[in-house]
Amino acid sequence: MSAESDPGWKGDAHPRQEGPVDLRLAGPALAAWATAALVLDVPLAWSLGVAGVCLVGGVALLRVGSGRCRAPVAAVLLCVAASAVSAGLHGADVRRGPVPEVARRFGTVTAEVELTADPWLSRPRVRGDRAAPVGVLARGEVRRVGEAGAEGVGGGEGAGALTRSPVLLVVDADVPAPGVRGAAPDARTAWLRLLPSTRLRLTGRLAPPTTPGDRTAAVLRVRDWPPPEIATGPTAPQRLAGRLRAGLREATEELPSDARALLPGLVVGDTSRITPELDDAFKATDLAHTLAVSGSNLTILLALLIGPPGMAGLAERRGVAPFLGLSLRTTALLAGALTVAFVIVCRPDPSVLRAAACGAVALLALATGRRRPLVPALATAVLLLVLYDPWLARSYGFVLSVLATGALLLLAPRWSEALLRRGVPARLAEGLAAAAAAQAACAPVVAVLSARVSLVAVPCNLLVELAVAPATVLGFAALGAAPVSMPLAKALAWCASWPAGWIATVARTGAAQPGAGVDWPGSWPGALLLAAVTVALVLLGRRLIRHPWWCGALALLLLLVVVRPAPLTRAVTGWPPPNWRYAMCDVGQGDATVLSAGPGTAVVVDAGPDPAPVDRCLRELGITRIPLLVLTHFHADHVGGLSGVLRGRSVAAIETTAFAEPPDQAESVRREAAAHHIPLTTAAAGEERRVGPLTWRVLWPQPDALPPDGPNDASITLLVHTAGLRLLLLGDLEPPAQQELLRTPQSADLSLVDVLKVAHHGSAYQDPGLLHLAAPRVALISCGTGNPYGHPAPTTLAALRSTGATVLRTDRDGALALTGTGGPHGGMKVMRD
What we know:
This protein is an alpha/beta fold. Helix content is 47%, strand content 15%. The chain is built from 29 helices and 28 strands. The termini are far apart. Residues 1-17 and 151-158 have low confidence and may be disordered.
């Protein structure tokens, strides 16, 4: 009986019947990869010397060597030689020329720069009490350069020396875009619309690269005068790609916010609309790969064309191509054309070429159904890519792509088969095995990047798997339809918005879990430790999978660790303490405090500098409803985390000070409130309010007081009563306002408070009279570890202790919570997280 007639025969595609994995090309590919990563920084002479020695050794082995190791060792030596030459030349090309030399002197130049990638916005950062303006970043190549003020420079189009040096352009918010003389937001938008291959003529200051070993000769900070100009426009392929991408953006303009932001990212890697909050959610759940141009994008399109794995050569093959009656040869040509179109639309830069190469390997898997021959194909792709662009050897994206592809080829089929043997449904087994294999392979590298290990990555990737394909296919259909029929493109985009919205919901829900991730050393020793832990878990899992009850118990334990139900967490950790009245969150160098108003309900005062810490604090405290959010003033270290407070919570109103400075932060708060349909009110001295057991009175700012010198002196000051406790929250008041407060009729109410939230993070600028009048039992200070301002000041600490106060601070004690009641027999306690 033939093998084909045996009903138990599974074909050569079955992983158990393909024989041992062919790793002959893996050694040369890895050797070339390691050589490129090491040689990029060494002098060209050294790299050529290494190449010469390896070349001689490899040729000698081939000519006179013998034994089984002769060919493999010779292949490794020859690949090392080729990689050393390529990396040496590429590294020397970055280091030579006038640009690095002028950058070492921080010189000002006029230059002609060709953009090599899409510009993007820098992430907002809080520096002290200010938010750094959001600027534009772009990668480009300096083609002509001359120092400003030098003879013959700046006098015409041909001035300056010819060169080809990669730079990072830094464009501040006040720099006008070429052809734009409007407001800063319009200028930023115009900068973001510039296409790769556009040549700009501009003036700027060069500086050495901030990341040594990067493919950057210098950082070029663009100046606003003379204004930048467009020297030449983009090439035809880039204009075509730009039109298609612009059409997709227009087609998604009217979609819900998450789908509007996600679809361009899922389809062509356009993340310009992704908010920092949504980006953090995708990173926390290890779903960030869905927002980058990757081989999976191309694989989905090719799978739609070719059909299920292993059926490309069969008469009963499925997919769009056989449905249209296309032959195998025509299908292959169409798949190649689709790959070329993918590269053009998504930009032919190294990351897209890498994605196309990995997608081509997956294409072979789909067409043949075999995985054993694909390991040499993956090794060949790695080798050719590293020789073509040695800088990929240092790219984390390249490492993750190769690891994920290798895991899907080697680990996923066997893990899937093991799950099938134990009764797991086929579709679930394939998805679970693929997600687990990719996570196991990539987690050590991700830990280096984020110093965190996600515990929800596998379930989140599994939940979005079914939505990624329809969102990608419909998104590409909308992209192709946009130039022909915008109504059709909008209809397709609307259909794609449903799976895209599901992906965003999974990311937000996963990131919102209290135990979504654990901190991990963000270093290569930490990565090796995580790899060892992963291997141990895999070996343990092979034994545990034979015992379903143990698997169920461990899965339940992991679920409890991730969800962290409040009663269980309180029983294990003691945090948050039962019946807490007041909490000071540990948000770094900033303020965020919480006043309990009942189960799950609290009045929040300030939001800290970043969304993540305050969101995590409120989740740990179990806060889901906020009747009032008080923002004492508009400094970034008090309002920068506003989106974290609003995340997944019902906020009835936001109360602010009338002094709207700094204006950019005040406008940001108004914009965020409007986006969530939350009314804004202004605090007034004498205002008294009550929520449940909580009452408070606004003491400052007074309407008849002198105009404040700055935002700090306009801080809202509250006197709070809860369970017999008296709390004085001073915001960031400085001595002038503190002295004015002492002269108000309400000053008598300030004496002998139970708790003082010390003003301005415990800075030295305090009025001793106010501290001694308040004479708090406990003084709480919110400040960041190792902050550059010296907060809290030793003089302030001494003054507080002289009043008999117990002083606690978040930089040393972490988050703090107050329990008990006031009065001489109240038994007030302060608990630490």
